[in-house]
Amino acid sequence: MNRVILLRHGESMWNLENRFTGWTDVDLSTNGVEEARLAGKILKNEGYQFDKAYTSVLKRAIRTLWIVEEMMDLVWLPVEKRWELNERHYGSLQGLNKAEMAKQYGAELVHQWRRGYGIEPPPLDNSDPRHPRFDRRYAGLAPEALPASESLKKTLQRVIPCWKQCILPDIAAGKELIIVAHGNSLRALYKHLEGLSDQEVMELNIPTGIPLVFELDSAFRPTAHYYLADSEKSQEAIGDTAH
Ligand SMILES: O=C(O)[C@H](O)COP(=O)(O)O
């Protein structure tokens, strides 16, 4: 059986403050550190072993992975950091409070921005210092690859090539992998794996800090998936993420 573990980073400072984050490089909150510790502890206690990890180039995911590695005594683990696993770029919403935006623009539009498949939040201006073209970690990328905002669809269009070209060959080679990423990059991957419709993915929420196991058949199609938490806890966490 092939298997891959997906993990959304622990709660970040801006999750805590209910602000749109996207590509903003905010760190974990104290609670997020605890969530990452617990995820590592659960993975260790359940006997998981890894050969390699994938993560994004954003510190909330990277630090979550570091903490998991420490908890599992796996600090030697090879890690591949891929910008394609970053959170969806939230455009000019980044930094703004989600509840205040719902008051200003209406809950329905904000819900569409957050959970709709094709809708793109308002973009960052090209001259905005927060535009990724000013960030050296993206310096090697073609300018047209750098988003100023992304729908979930656009996010999926970068996540899935990374899945197919980098991650799947590692799984095919028999490696046990953990992918530590973000709410929307993982929603995109989940949509692809489970073949969710554009409508179905609107209902999908991935909680912070709870390992999600995908079992795959020999053609890498999912045969099962489950959270490593009791169902009450994961349902509560999924509910929290939705709001
Ligand atoms: O980027 C963000 O704001 C969060 O990590 C994900 O936010 P969402 O639940 O509003 O998509």
Keywords:
6 strands; glycolysis; 12% strand; 243 residues; 8 helices; Phosphogly_mut1; Rossmann fold; binds 3-phosphoglyceric acid; alpha/beta; 6-stranded mixed sheet
Low-confidence regions: none
Biggest sheet strand order reads: 3-2-4-1-5-6
At the first level of CATH, what is the class?
A: Alpha Beta
Number of strands: 6
The CATH topology is given as Rossmann fold
Q: What structural class is derived from the secondary structure elements?
A: alpha/beta
CATH superfamily: Phosphoglycerate mutase-like
Summarize model confidence as the mean pLDDT: 96
How many domains make up the coordinates?
1
Q: In sequence order, what are the helices and strands, one letter per element? A: EHHEHEHHHEHEEH
Radius of gyration: 17 Å
Family: Belongs to the phosphoglycerate mutase family. BPG-dependent PGAM subfamily.
InterPro entries: His_Pase_superF_clade-1, His_PPase_superfam, PG/BPGM_mutase_AS, Phosphogly_mut1
Catalytic activity: (2R)-2-phosphoglycerate = (2R)-3-phosphoglycerate
Protein name: 2,3-bisphosphoglycerate-dependent phosphoglycerate mutase
Q: Mind explaining what this structure looks like?
A:
With 243 residues, this protein is α/β, with parallel strands linked by helices. It has a single domain (2-89, 151-240), classed as Rossmann fold. The chain has helices spanning 13-16, 30-45, 59-71, 98-105, 107-115, 152-172, 183-194, 231-242, and strands spanning 2-8, 52-55, 79-81, 177-181, 212-216, 222-227. It has a 6-stranded mixed beta sheet. Helix 3 (59-71) links the parallel strand 2 (52-55) and strand 3. It is globular. It starts with a strand and ends with a helix. The mean pLDDT is 96. Bound molecules: 3-phosphoglyceric acid (3PG). 3-phosphoglyceric acid is lined by residues 20-22, 87, 90, 114, 182-184, 241.
